[in-house]
Amino acid sequence: MSKILPSVDEYIPHLAYDSVIFGFNGEQLKILILEYHNTGLFALPGGFVRQNENLDDAVKRGLKERTGLDNIYLEQFHTFGDLSRPDPDVMRTILEANDHEVEEGNWLLDRFISVAYYALINYNSVEPKPDELSDSINWYAVDKLPPLMMDHGKIVEKALETLRNNLEKKLVGMNLLPSKFTMKELQLVYEAVLGEKLRRTTFQRKILGLDILKRHEKLFTGAAHKAPYLYSFKNKAPIEHQEHA
Amino acid sequence: MSKILPSVDEYIPHLAYDSVIFGFNGEQLKILILEYHNTGLFALPGGFVRQNENLDDAVKRGLKERTGLDNIYLEQFHTFGDLSRPDPDVMRTILEANDHEVEEGNWLLDRFISVAYYALINYNSVEPKPDELSDSINWYAVDKLPPLMMDHGKIVEKALETLRNNLEKKLVGMNLLPSKFTMKELQLVYEAVLGEKLRRTTFQRKILGLDILKRHEKLFTGAAHKAPYLYSFKNKAPIEHQEHA
DNA sequence: TATTATTGTCTCATTTTGTTACAATAATAC
DNA sequence: GTATTATTGTAACAAAATGAGACAATAATA
Hints:
2 copies of one chain form a homodimer. By secondary structure, chain A is an alpha+beta fold. Chain A folds into 2 domains: 11-166, Alpha-Beta Complex (Nucleoside Triphosphate Pyrophosphohydrolase); 176-233, Arc Repressor Mutant, subunit A, CATH 1.10.10.10. The first copy, chain A, is built from 6 helices and 9 strands; from the N terminus they run ββββαβαββααααββ. Chain A has helices spanning 55-67, 88-97, 152-166, 172-176, 183-194, 200-210, and strands at residues 11-24, 29-36, 42-43, 46-50, 73-80, 113-120, 134-141, 213-218, 229-233. In chain A, the strands form 2 sheets. In chain A, strands 1, 2, 3, 4, 5, 6 and 7 form a 7-stranded mixed sheet that branches. The longest helix of chain A has 15 residues, at 152-166. The termini of chain A are far apart. The interface between A and B is medium-sized, with 28 and 28 residues.
């Protein structure tokens, strides 16, 4: 065995998490997808929960390892627990492609229940790092994802659905944009999440009416037109988790 | 040992579910709470997941055992995975009060991650049955719950919050009322869930505007006033789970 | 037959949202 | 400089949704 696999003693068996990490590149909504060595398999970044750590903390630990970011907006959205979801053959393929010998009965081949989270991060503040088993980790536009292994496609769907539902009440834009941004950029985030065009004047009036933005200096891009204002959220720093008080 | 405990071989270790079962008695929103023998401990009905059954099916099985109902509206809303949530002392108390000898290391004393669901049922169609470990199972108004053990109070809070958020889009009323009901009853459901009074005329206009109700004969209660119409949801039978196609 | 409580509906005021219009710019072309 | 171009910020009006009150139509009962 060439590399060290996670051991069953350290982790809770049958329990995993998967994360849908959203970023916005100025035009499109994107997701971080990793590809396993020599398998052509694409998957969501995920991991396991240590015996002595909170579920939420396990996910934060995984995100930190992959993105280097510490204070990430994170929201749990669903737990996937169907018998049909895990696929031991897929798992075996991944392990064997990494030169792990896999004995029958290895805990990684068992049934897994997965708790799914989505994260919102600032696209530009991150240089994603692959983990030991995976080749690469890259951004993919949500409408141009490669075929994902197991039920990861469904997980992404549900994440998008939840994100859409939370768009208004959770100030999603705050976490996908840099601290200063134009109204146009904010609108593009909304459009990318909702998957539909919005009317400029109505959007602007509505957002300004919420009284959550602070206006700053103008942004001179060098383009031949009126320079837009920059805004930031009044509500200070991007918030990691708007939790029940 | 006087009774048979669930065995670790049959179930997935460290994984449980809890259910918040809502009912509406015509006035108040209520929840089914069970009380364990000789302990004074109140808890949500919950259970474990068999090695070879879907997570959702485990919950349905538990609900069926407790309510006798088969086709229950069920929605998963959160997974609770903090280290601090399980309390081995509480679990031991419950088991010992039922004359179970509890050896150190029994799986039931381990850490548990719990997937929480809420269910909506027709209050009158049910005669709740206690399980083997519990004394009684009873309806409690959501604003008059006894103190619940462990983190079950938080679970109820989150369930209510989710129910409120889903009220509009999931046709909650459909599952909490009998098949025919008056406009007033429907309004009472909305008020109970939202925790606030609604304006009668506005409510009526809005609901009728949704074009989801079918009007039937009048209901003569014997009261000294105009008899209200009975309505039913056009959308036929109460739906078990409005799932992603 | 008058009284009472409640229901169904209408009307008008208020608020919110949709839509169009237009002035104010920051470049660039001349 | 001055006209041109693309975009932005905001105002103005129309349309739609919601809030609030009024009122006629009952099923009993007194």
